[in-house]
Amino acid sequence: MPAFDPETVRADFPILFREIAGKPLVYLDNGATTQKPQCVIDSMTRFFSNENANIHRGVHYLSREATDAYEGAREYLKAELRVPATHELIFVRGATEAINLVTHSLAPLLTEGDEVVLTVMEHHANFVPWQVLAKERGLILRFAGLRENGELNLEEWKALFTERTRVAAFTHVSNVLGTRNPVTEMTAFARERGVLTLVDGAQALPHGPVDLGAAGGDFYVFSGHKVYAPDGVGVLYGPKDLLNAAPPYQTGGDMIEQVSIEGTTFRQVPERFEAGTPNISGAIGLAEAFRYMSGIDWPAAHAHEDALAAHATSELEKIPGIRVFGKAPGKVAIVSFLYAAAHPHDVGTILDTEGVAIRVGHHCAQPLMHYLKVPATARASFSFYNNHADVETFLRAMKKVERFFG
User: Any catalytic annotation for residue 364?
Assistant: First the structure.
């Protein structure tokens, strides 16, 4: 396998050449949001400069051009993600809205005593909506735990299924541990039992496109801002028949078919769940981000990211009092750790003085923090545009933390 050269892609990301406090930026907060390549920035600038208009409802040239760009983005993403004909790709604000839309849509199908299977590693976005729905509908939530290395206890997860299980919702990749769950096996297991599945792909897509048809799930969601695209846009992938039968999530705008004093009828998906004026430029930028990613040598990029994370983990563990969480086989390049001598917020603050950006706190995963019996962690998350110099700067900054607190 040829070595991956991050310098060939770093030049595409203008923000990486900033200085923070007089020092070169080392951006290791990719799990929270990824940076944007110049082509994505240019695609949105080009839209606002040359094509800006509302879509679908206009007969003038700009509106037709904007409509073609927006719907072209959808069709490109459907092809890139291999969306089967039985499913649809709906533009939403992000994974959080997508999951809320799904829980809203499934609510009429669920009755008191029905069960939803989750895992303790879920982001709040894939936990709280189910918790709220459970309270409203009298549902029972069941949670699978982890093995010592941060891997999902798959046998425990399977054992949670009963004749009352209706939905299984789980993350593709943990935003704290980097654990990559076996989604194809999990969706197949659920399908055999007539259980609907929702996969939170927010942390998986930044590390390479996913074949949604092969993944086999009913619903799959992700956010644009984590895949080198703009914020405020994301995707819900789901079965057409089920979504067309579901009540609208929001009303108004292009999702309406006919309105009269006597009543209103609504359009089919995808328009059914795209009320009002959508994030047109965001959808265009999202498609451009996927075009950019299609040029990445992903096997080489994965090897590069893994090498960065492995080196960071190895050196961190040489610091007395450092505990690294999540060592599941095949995990993505996320390194969460706790330093006994300092609170994660103090660690993050000192690293910031060296130009190093990491994430600290509970990472919107408080149930997982409680499961691990820690209040918070520090998290360095890597992308293909990070290089070995970034890791060395991060490790030098951690030595500064050790000197200050140790």
Answer: yes
